[in-house]
Specification:
Peptide Methionine Sulfoxide Reductase, Chain A; six-stranded mixed β-sheet; two-stranded antiparallel sheet; 7 helices; about 20% strand; globular
């Protein structure tokens, strides 16, 4: 009996000293972009492999707890943005920036298509100094694709405000709605055909 107990203790001690095969800690990162109407920007990034979640919201203004009505009044200073949760092992921040510049017109000030106002401005909200540096390099690289100057702002993220529930996953929930059918769907198809985003 004593021998059996001693062997059990020895086996347990040995097992505790062996290297663990636990999965590595998650390295999920975040990125925040404004590229016009957030319904469109959200729909684009939802189709990017490596993006785990895309949330519509507001950022860059002075109004606390802004509502959509505050944004539309042009007095809040906020832009319509999305916050992307991504796995950098699958997709890099650099690649997300390439998709960002490809998916909207970064040369139009406070406007995307028929949408006009400061809430539709082109903006990158960086989360740290590394993102700031990468965003600046991406903007410089993207300029080669445009004849007009890129007006995209690169500013620090101070606060992200999640938009109302009815704005979330909007394109997927309302594919037949006018803007979704005639603006967002053609843009998504174009980016998919070019291989910029997934299906």
């Amino acid at each position: 009996m004593k021998v059996r107990i001693l062997l059990s203790v020895l086996f347990l001690s040995l097992a505790m000293t062996l290297p663990s095969e636990a999965k590595p800690a998650s390295k999920i990162e975040f990125a925040t972009f404004g590229g016009g109407c957030f319904w469109c920007t959200e729909a684009v990034f939802q189709r990017v492999p490596g993006v785990l979640r895309s949330v519509s919201g507001y950022s860059g203004g002075k109004t606390e707890n802004p509502t959509y009505e505050d944004i539309c009044s042009h007095g809040s200073g906020h832009a319509e943005v999305i916050q992307v949760e991504f796995d950098p092992v699958v997709i890099s921040y650099e690649k997300l920036l390439e998709i960002f510049f490809e998916s909207h017109d970064p040369t139009t000030l406070n406007r995307q298509g028929a949408d006009e106002g400061d809430q539709y401005r082109s903006v990158i909200f960086y989360h740290d100094e590394a993102q700031q540096k990468t965003a600046a390099q991406a903007k410089l690289a993207a300029q080669a694709q445009y004849a007009d100057p890129i007006v995209t702002e690169i500013v620090p993220l101070k606060k992200f405000w999640r938009a109302e529930d009815y704005h979330q996953d909007y394109f997927n929930q309302h594919p037949g709605q006018g803007c979704c059918a005639f603006v967002i769907k053609p843009k998504i198809s174009k980016l998919q055909n070019k291989g910029v985003i997934g299906k």
